Write the structure tokens for this entry.
Amino acid sequence: MTGPSAVAATGRRFGDRVTDHVAARESQIVLGLDPDPSRLWPGSGDGVPADGPPAARAAAAVAAHCRAVIAAVAPAVVAVKPQLACFERLGAPGRAALGAAVEAAHEHGLLVVADGKRGDIDVSATAYAQSLVGTTPTPYGDVPGLGADALTAAPYMGVDTIDSLLAVTRPAGAGVFVLVRTSNPGAADVEDLELAGGGPLWEHVARIVDRLGEGDGAALHDVGAVVGATRPEHVARMRELMPRAVFLLPGVGAQGGRVEDLAPAWAPGPAGGLATASRSIVQAAERGGVGTPAAAARAEAERLRDAAWSLA
């Protein structure tokens, strides 16, 4: 069972669902999918027609690549995080490839975090959430969205934008991961700015995340935080400010973040942190991994899983 109906049928809040999945799979690793059509696994294009629109052909190869990657590493991970832009740049066929990746992840029992960093006024935020985790009611019947289990969101247009996302995600049992302190070097340009009242901007956002998650009745909130693994010195402070938020921890591997430096993320328990790795898993063979791309990716995912599990 996939899609929004599979999410809603659980009857569980997102924090509880993450806890259940982490315990069942004994993993806190999230596979990031940001496919580059020029760097797909060998064989991804074998079934692609020799002619036809370029977008359709590229998207078919991307879909085959994503299915192969997910199948290879599924036993070692708990979730998949597709980067929406990497699919959307291929137009309508790219959206179909994204849907195929989500379906493959659900078939392997994995959660899906749609990474688009959405954030807009109420009407647009509602549409984004319906597109990714919910359904859109129309006079012609309900139109299902992508069927993701969570989405990422930018908070800089204000709390009302996040509230509009939550109005859709909460009834679906889905989650929202709000950008708090991200993994890119440019995060310092805005997120680290000192406020007039003291403290960096990201601390203010962290307090908002904690407040939005209160009262949902779960041990872990359905409002989580994107916390860059490239600045581990901030993780302990973030855990103080957001004691029950699930941390989504991008930047492990290719961006230089290390799972071993993120121990405070798991203070609430094994499901408190989800460490995300993309290129370091998918391109493990290119980076000196042993064996086929699938074998090297699986080995790297297992290494990360063991490292994270030992900290929890």
